[in-house]
Amino acid sequence: MASLDTRIDLGGQQNSWNGSDGSLKHSEHLISHRKIVRRWNQLSRLQRSLVYVVILILITIVVLLCTSKTSQVINREKLTVEKELSNASSLVTDPPPNAEPLKKINIDSEIIQKPLFTGPGNARQYAVVESFKHAWKGYKEHAWGHDNLKPVSGMAFDWFSLGLTIVDGLDTAYIMGLNEEFQEGKEWINNELIFTKQKDVNFFEVTIRVLGALLTNYHFTEDKMFLNKAKDLGERLMSAFSSPSGIPYSDVNLGSRTAHAPEWAHYSTTAEATTIQLEFRELSRSSNNPVFEDAAAAVSEKIHQLPKKHGLVPIFINPNTGQFAPHATITLGARGDSYYEYLLKQWLQTGKTITYLVDDYMTAIEGVREYLAKRSSPNKRLFIGELSSGSEAFNPKMDHLTCFLPGTLALGHMNGLPDWHMTMAEELLYTCYLTYAAHPTFLAPEITHFNMVSTTEDMYTKTADAHNLLRPEFVESLWYMYQITGNTTYQDWGWQIYQSFEKYAKVPNGYTSLNNVKSEKPVLRDMMESFFLSETLKYLYLLFSDDRFIIDLNKYVINSEAHPLPIHKN
């Protein structure tokens, strides 16, 4: 208690001292202020004016100094922002170090590098160029402006009346450096190719052959004429998506812009409905109109949702219901093949950004390994069979069309898919090679059958399946394998096949399909398909190049008709 009283007394004493000091300071302040006022009153008017001027000058100087510092701060901030923007811009516009001086096309804010072609560089390539010139010359003389040439009879044949051979084969001429042929084909397209005829065409075939070719030629040449033709055609083809499910109808009337199912069935072919996405997506990117890509991508998304047999799909789908035909054949041959091809290639085209595409592809290839990949007897050759309609019983037959698969598997492996894909590709490619080597013509039949229990032959060919249409699938896979591995054995295999085409298929007016590869003197079928110029000769030319990367698979996806389309970032 005593200590508490002491603290109180001390506090009171301290407060009195503070009050006394405050009074003294206040008195001094008042005296000082009065002196200043008195002295100011003693000044003359002139002296007061001078004081005002000095004060005004000082205020002006202070304001100017403050303004200058603020400006410096703003300028420094502006320079910092401009530097940051410049750095960000350089990430988009600066070329990579050591980049080749390639011509560029600006499409949808992306820079598309255009390949440069310098013509043939060795004897094998020169030979293929001469073959193309021979086929083009015969077509020009006997079927110019028509879809196909019948080279034995020298007659023309029309399927869609769209000048398929010109349009489909034109980028091959460009790649080969055949300027004269390219210019006359380009002139025909500019002046004669129209889409107003009241005639049904196959949606899939016109998409991959005509739309794909127009887009490729646009990218190669930067000529807007090709893009304008592609947009016109694409708008007319859009009627195919008018079905209740969005799954495209198979037949389109370009003139009336209407579409319908084929006369023979209510179904569309699964491969056809799912092999138009690369082209429609590229048309959207080139024209800056998303409607084409949206319609085509919706088909892939719809089929992604459907139940499958370990990723494997039946070959027919109903455009009215959007459902697969029950118990239809499952195959990687006709009507099924390119569904699997375009799963992978769409994933690559979109910069590997749509994961369900590669997931569906991976699941499907696992399904191929489990259900369709078998070995023949006695030499255990790997082949890809079918599951028959109705019973889903295994059928040990393989279409030549299935020989696209080794190239597709190798392309997937190149982009990070499992090693066993490449092993399967190598084994299957050798089996495809044997389908050529097994015959005296060294040409493959349309369909090869395999023995599962035999002590003599692994494979055989039925007479009804022995024809050869000069198809490209095997040489296509050879080119993929050559670019990816650098193994020149694939070039030698391709040269053997090319020599067989020269020996058995070449006629005075072009090249003809053959009736029976088992005969040393095969009957001529009198038809030169547009894909012989578009695909077969193109792939052979690329295969024989000393430069494996004339068309770099890191920059382009190749559509189902061998028309290169650029890879995008998304």
From TrEMBL:
Disulfide feature: 403-432
Organism of provenance: Danaus chrysippus (African queen)
Gene Ontology MF annotations: calcium ion binding; mannosyl-oligosaccharide 1,2-alpha-mannosidase activity
Subcellular location: Endoplasmic reticulum membrane
UniProt GO BP: carbohydrate metabolic process; proteasomal protein catabolic process; response to endoplasmic reticulum stress
Cofactor(s) required for function per UniProt: Ca(2+)
Membrane topology label: Single-pass type II membrane protein
Membrane-spanning ranges: 49-65
Organism domain of life: Eukaryota
Name this protein carries in UniProt: alpha-1,2-Mannosidase
Residues noted as binding Ca(2+) in the record, renumbered to the chain: 560
UniProt xrefs under SUPFAM superfamilies: Seven-hairpin glycosidases
Stated role: Involved in glycoprotein quality control targeting of misfolded glycoproteins for degradation. It primarily trims a single alpha-1,2-linked mannose residue from Man(9)GlcNAc(2) to produce Man(8)GlcNAc(2), but at high enzyme concentrations, as found in the ER quality control compartment (ERQC), it further trims the carbohydrates to Man(5-6)GlcNAc(2).
Pathway it works in: Protein modification; protein glycosylation
One GO cellular component, as annotated: endoplasmic reticulum membrane
PANTHER family: ENDOPLASMIC RETICULUM MANNOSYL-OLIGOSACCHARIDE 1,2-ALPHA-MANNOSIDASE, MANNOSYL-OLIGOSACCHARIDE ALPHA-1,2-MANNOSIDASE-RELATED
Reaction it catalyzes: N(4)-(alpha-D-Man-(1->2)-alpha-D-Man-(1->2)-alpha-D-Man-(1->3)-[alpha-D-Man-(1->2)-alpha-D-Man-(1->3)-[alpha-D-Man-(1->2)-alpha-D-Man-(1->6)]-alpha-D-Man-(1->6)]-beta-D-Man-(1->4)-beta-D-GlcNAc-(1->4)-beta-D-GlcNAc)-L-asparaginyl-[protein] (N-glucan mannose isomer 9A1,2,3B1,2,3) + 4 H2O = N(4)-(alpha-D-Man-(1->3)-[alpha-D-Man-(1->3)-[alpha-D-Man-(1->6)]-alpha-D-Man-(1->6)]-beta-D-Man-(1->4)-beta-D-GlcNAc-(1->4)-beta-D-GlcNAc)-L-asparaginyl-[protein] (N-glucan mannose isomer 5A1,2) + 4 beta-D-mannose; N(4)-(alpha-D-Man-(1->2)-alpha-D-Man-(1->2)-alpha-D-Man-(1->3)-[alpha-D-Man-(1->3)-[alpha-D-Man-(1->2)-alpha-D-Man-(1->6)]-alpha-D-Man-(1->6)]-beta-D-Man-(1->4)-beta-D-GlcNAc-(1->4)-beta-D-GlcNAc)-L-asparaginyl-[protein] (N-glucan mannose isomer 8A1,2,3B1,3) + 3 H2O = N(4)-(alpha-D-Man-(1->3)-[alpha-D-Man-(1->3)-[alpha-D-Man-(1->6)]-alpha-D-Man-(1->6)]-beta-D-Man-(1->4)-beta-D-GlcNAc-(1->4)-beta-D-GlcNAc)-L-asparaginyl-[protein] (N-glucan mannose isomer 5A1,2) + 3 beta-D-mannose
Keyword Ribonucleoprotein in annotation: no
InterPro entries in the cross-refs: 6hp_glycosidase-like_sf, Glyco_hydro_47, Glycosyl_Hydrolase_47, Seven-hairpin_glycosidases
Pfam family, one: Glyco_hydro_47
Family in the record: Belongs to the glycosyl hydrolase 47 family.
Active site: 205, 337, 446, 473
Enzyme Commission numbers on file: 3.2.1.-
Keyword Zinc (UniProt): no
